[in-house]
Design goal:
Blueprint: E1 3-7, E2 11-12, E3 18-25, E4 34-41, E5 48-54, E6 59-61, E7 69-74, E8 79-84, E9 93-101, E10 107-110, E11 114-118
């Protein structure tokens, strides 16, 4: 059973950087044919895909967030990390990490989500 757990600060000031880590257990982030994604849900809105890091370490980001987004990984800890810079209150959301099956839009495992609020 694969489990994902988000961690990071719940409150970030405007213009600073959101930094979140997803720790994966029960499966390796280097296993072929999975993408490790970050997704968020602002209050009262739908899910928004942010980007992913693939099993081979390639990355792909949402065009609307690409200039502010970086996703990296630490294979020794089986973790992957999101950094979203120059944040504004519009970046307030519940942030999720999830595993996507290669070649599909299926997310088969999710973290429980972590609330991040951008406020001074």
């Amino acid at each position: 059973q694969v489990q994902l757990q988000e961690s990071g600060p719940g409150l970030v000031k405007p213009s600073q950087t959101i930094s979140l880590t997803c720790t994966v257990s029960g499966g390796s982030i280097t296993t072929n044919y999975y993408y490790w994604s970050w997704i968020r849900q602002p209050p009262g809105k739908g899910l928004e895909w942010i980007g992913y890091i693939a099993y081979g370490a390639s990355t792909y980001y949402s065009p609307s967030l690409e200039s502010r987004t970086s996703i990296s990984r630490d294979t020794s800890k089986n973790q992957f990390t999101l950094q979203l810079s120059s944040v504004t209150p519009e970046d307030t959301a519940v942030y999720y990490c999830a595993r996507q099956v290669w070649g599909t839009y299926e997310y088969d495992y999710w973290g429980q989500g972590t609330q991040v609020t951008v406020s001074s």
